[in-house]
Design a protein that fits this description.
- By secondary structure, this protein is of the alpha/beta class.
- The chain contains 22 helices and ten strands.
- The strands form two sheets. Strands 3-2-4-1-5-6-7-8 form an eight-stranded mixed β-sheet, with helices on both faces. It has a two-stranded antiparallel ribbon with strand order 9-10.
- The longest helix is centred in the last third of the chain and has 23 residues, at 406-428.
Length: 491
């Protein structure tokens, strides 16, 4: 969503970093560029004015005047003020002293309330809670059925009946108490636009439930309409926080950057995809860092911890260094990686990588990763264990079974063999695995064989990842790259 804004900010801040000193004229120049970038991203005009005033007050003050590197100080100021606009601190849901904790979801039709209810229930389960869903949306056909389907998927009970929304909410809360559920999440009906019937119904349900948290679900794709909707609901219900959906969309992101400042309520959660797993707490500081091209290592680590089993990952790493890593292992790791999100979003969380993968959506077709899975799934267990046995007839059979070309099979097998050989050599060079390594360890010297700091990237060659091809820099893998199937589109 924020690719355009992020690209603009990176360009602006790159010029600021290069300045030896910054006078008032320099500050006004880069503030004008930030203003254009924010307005193009559909950020609310009042929010733009407030943000620029805050940056100006700090940038022309004592913070920058005596700084050895004013450019870096300016970047720090922009990061801090952008974080403040997004809410400052991460919202921490509280729990009732006497369960259940009641959560009411409100919003317009199409904002994703029903799916969000299930995602929120799954999140509460991850916190060690026992949630229950209440389906009080009796207006939209199949809304309750959708909620039951999602509830079955995450193993959370759903209560509803065909009376009326207020009665359903009341009976659902009683059922949650009877079952000993400590969180009750109520999904309500929406309308295509704000009207008195909608507000009256949600207000009556709220009076009945007396919720501990009232969350408004807003669609980030609606831009400034989301801000207007949030103001109207907050006036009537008194919102505690917001949940923003479709944050993975291709809109400009103005709603996320405006809504907290205008409404005065934080964004609690963000939905970044269609599946129930694509849901996470909203961290203003992390999003600000990603907008400024600084990555988001914390979220990347959290996603990896949720996705990869530590023991299995360590065992796979050991097999890789020993040279016994199989195509089954590779397929398992590839599937786990994809559970973390798109390759583009994952690489965008790595500091310094966002600008290098800006055109990754065009350069990398994730359907080609499906072709890798298809190829490996078309192999027999013995072929996946030892791909050296794959001869011409086997290649033809695998190609026919996976709907690919024989050349793709050749490329996968060849590059996997090279990768395994390379990893085995790397494992053999580690401390304790060779005489030189043991000698270094015995003498108390470290086992580093490369210079400190990040590995340099050959911009002419580009960056290569096993199975994913080169990242932008060179549009396509070179002969020595281990891209494991030519994910890159042919020229």
């Amino acid at each position: 969503m924020f690719e355009g804004l992020s690209s603009r900010f990176e360009g602006i801040l790159r010029k600021v970093r290069g300045r030896g000193r910054l006078g008032p004229e320099d500050v006004e120049e880069f503030l004008a560029e930030i203003r254009v970038a924010l307005l193009e991203a559909d950020v609310h005009l009042d929010v733009v004015r407030t943000l620029l005033d805050r940056i100006r007050d700090r940038a022309v003050g004592v913070e920058v005047a005596g700084a050895l590197n004013p450019g870096q100080i300016i970047v720090k100021i922009v990061l801090e003020e952008l974080t403040a606009v997004l809410g400052g601190e991460t919202f921490r849901p509280a729990y009732a002293s006497k369960p259940p904790t009641v959560v009411l979801l409100a919003g317009l039709q199409g904002s994703g309330k029903t799916t969000t209810a299930a995602k929120l229930a799954r999140w509460y389960k991850g916190q060690g809670r026992n949630p229950m869903l209440i389906g009080a949306d009796l207006l939209r056909p199949a809304a309750v059925e959708q909620l039951r389907t999602l509830g079955d998927r995450i193993n959370v009970p759903v209560f509803s009946d065909s009376t009326d929304p207020v009665s359903v909410a009341r009976a659902g809360l009683a059922e949650a108490v009877r079952l000993g559920r400590d969180v009750a999440i109520c999904d309500t009906a929406g309308r295509l636009a704000i009207d008195e019937d909608l507000m009256a119904e949600v207000a009556e349900i709220s009076d009945t439930l007396q919720p501990h948290h009232t969350f408004l679900v807003v669609d980030a794709m609606t831009g400034q309409d989301a801000v207007t909707t949030a103001e109207a609901f907050h006036t009537r219900l008194g919102l505690d926080a917001l949940i923003i959906t479709k944050l993975d969309g291709d809109a400009r992101g103005g709603a996320a950057l405006s809504i907290t400042e205008v409404v005065g309520r934080p964004i609690a959660f963000a939905s970044t995809g269609e599946t129930v797993e694509d849901f996470e707490p909203f961290h203003p500081d992390r999003l600000a860092g990603r907008i400024l091209g600084m990555g988001d290592v914390e979220t990347l680590i959290e996603k990896a911890e949720e996705t990869f089993a530590v023991e299995e990952a360590e065992a796979a790493a050991a097999r890789m260094l020993e040279g016994t890593f199989t195509l089954d292992d590779f397929l398992e790791q590839l599937r786990a990686l994809r559970k973390m999100g798109s390759i583009n979003s994952i690489m965008g969380m790595v500091p310094g990588m966002a600008s290098q993968v800006r055109d990754l959506d065009e350069a990398l077709d994730e359907r080609r990763i499906d072709r890798i899975e298809g190829i490996i799934n078309s192999m027999t267990p013995s072929e996946r264990l030892g791909p050296d046995v794959i001869d011409g007839s086997r290649r033809a059979r695998i190609a026919a079974g996976s709907g690919t070309e024989v050349g793709e099979i050749n490329q996968l097998v060849k590059q996997f063999r090279e990768m395994r050989k390379m990893m085995k050599q790397m494992g053999g060079r580690g401390p304790g695995r060779s005489k030189a390594g043991r000698a270094r360890k015995k003498k108390g010297r470290g086992g580093r064989v490369t210079t400190a700091g990040p590995a340099p990237i050959d911009k002419k060659k580009g960056l290569s990842l096993p199975g994913l091809g080169d990242l932008p820099g060179d549009r396509g893998p070179s002969s020595g790259d281990l891209d494991l199937t030519g994910i890159w589109p042919s020229d």
